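Hello forum,

I keep getting stuck at the same step: I have a sequence, I want structure tokens, and every attempt I make locally crashes halfway through. Rather than fight my setup again tonight, could one of you with a working pipeline run this one for me? It's a single chain of 185 residues.
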Amino acid sequence: MDIFTILFIAVGLSMDAFAVSVTSGFTIKRLHINNALKIAVSFGMFQAIMPVLGWAAGLGFRGFISGVDHWIAFGLLSIIGVKMIFESRAMDSAKEPTDPLNIYTLLILSVATSIDALAVGLSLSLLSVSIISPSVIIGITTFLFSFAGVYIGKRAGHFFEKKIEIAGGLILIGIGVKILIEHLR
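Reply #2:
Ran it on my machine without issues. Output:
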């Protein structure tokens, strides 16, 4: 898998974390660099670990489905992308904000925003892609997007949130289509 595809996957996956970071920045009363780092490190770390877990799970049954692996990768990425698009439509800005710096809240947000990365790791395993580079790139990209998102949220609030989720979903669907087309040639 080429570096550009991995980067597009990383950007697509980081959109959930970015959107949550924007919201977090909006809700934090007094923003300090340590707050932004705490959120960015947590999101980036989970986004880097989850693909590895999905990849490891996929190793166990890769041999059984090697003939349809490209269809499965296409399906998983498309489902994740569609899910992100639908979730963007369901975001409720009227909810009472929670403290994103609370350790339990941050852990829940980190896991919730990285579940999609687990499925992507599974897809990469089915495509026999080494997981080290994608995992590191996904983690760093998510860290950078999350760090920036906290500050953007402090300035811009919820203006971009839904659009970011839609863009991330469309990117993942596009990558799924690309994988399918490459394997059908």
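Helices lie at 3-27, 33-59, 69-90, 103-126, 132-156, 161-184. If your local run keeps crashing, start a new thread with the error log.
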